[in-house]
Design goal:
mainly alpha
């Protein structure tokens, strides 16, 4: 969705920048946003609380709420697809793996 959104807006999106918060990303709170998204996938309430508070302090409550909504939406979509038994075609999985690797999300451990 990120690369499609960028294309639709006439922007070049380098997905490797999603995991690189030290350069190439024009978001002043990129590190805090990535830390919050990462903590939201873990079972550590202390880490999640700390990451959320850091994001709120740097970017504001509205950004933290939006980030939470995006995380919740992705969780919901995954569970919905799983519950229907939907499976992606092998070609699609291979294409998406390249994107996931570029973004660094291929290393994220599933809660399933």
């Amino acid at each position: 969705m990120l690369s499609w959104s960028g294309t639709e807006q006439g922007l070049e999106v380098n997905l490797e920048n999603v995991q690189n918060t030290t350069g190439g990303v024009d978001v002043s709170f990129a590190r805090e946003l990535v830390d919050f998204a990462t903590a939201a996938t873990e079972f550590d309430l202390v880490a999640l609380t700390k990451a959320r508070n850091n994001l709120i302090n740097v970017a504001g409550l509205a950004v933290a709420i939006d980030a939470s909504a995006v995380i919740a939406n992705f969780e919901m979509m995954t569970r919905l697809a799983d519950s229907t038994g939907a499976r992606m075609q092998t070609e699609v999985v291979q294409d998406r793996l390249a994107v996931a690797t570029a973004m660094g999300v291929d290393k994220v451990i599933s809660r399933r």
